Amino acid sequence: MRLDKMLSECGVATRSETAKAVRAGRVTVDGVPVRKPETKVDPERQTVIYCGMQVRYRKYVYLMLNKPDGYVSATEDGREATVLELLPEEYRKMGVFPCGRLDKHTLGLMLLTNDGALSHRLLAPKSHVSKAYAFSVKFPLSQKDVESLEAGVDIGGYVTKPCSVKLVDAQSGIITITEGKYHQIKLMMEAVHNQITYLERRSFGPLLFDESLARGEWRELTEEEERALKQ
Questions:
Q1: Given this chain, do its domains 62-125+216-230 and 130-204 carry the same CATH topology?
Q2: Any idea which fold 3-54 has?
Q3: Each residue of 70-109: b (16+ CB within 10 Å) or e?
Q4: Of 4, 42, 69, 103, which one is the catalytic site residue?
């Protein structure tokens, strides 16, 4: 692999920044100063130092974010703050993006990655990846409301697939769905003449919300979490 490509994929430096650092003698491979940015390196076996920092090669990264209120699930937006603004520049340079979307005012677990193939698999309707949300509503839900939600409701020309609703009390609980239509849970509650007042994602497939993350905080997935997602 070319050195400049490796550093670019790792989010460490652009190709032009690499060329500049090489000319200044600030890049070494196995302790030897590099003469050309296109030098071939083996990132798995060789030690690359860029401007005094050892570079750990990773083509893909997987992050869990506790999404706060008011951020949109996008890589860029001309008017609103995006979830990418909560991450260090290193990850933005690596091209991470939200895997799926949470509405602007929905909180909780969000997966961000630059692994497009995995994201596509997780979001494909045929995958039936479950997503659980803690919710509160404006009015009490009756048993009939719960049965209607679980069986599927019309949200504007589309009938939702069966889901699970576990009430904590008459106005809050956990709803688990296997699809992700735009504003789906909000529209589902409106279909039974109710209104969402609070919504927080608690799981995404095998990935469980990390209670230790404060709003706006993030961390990389553990190896075990990565394996579970990929399986």
A1: yes
A2: 3.10.290
A3: ebbbeeeeeeeebbbebbeeebbbbbbbbbbebbeebbbb
A4: 103
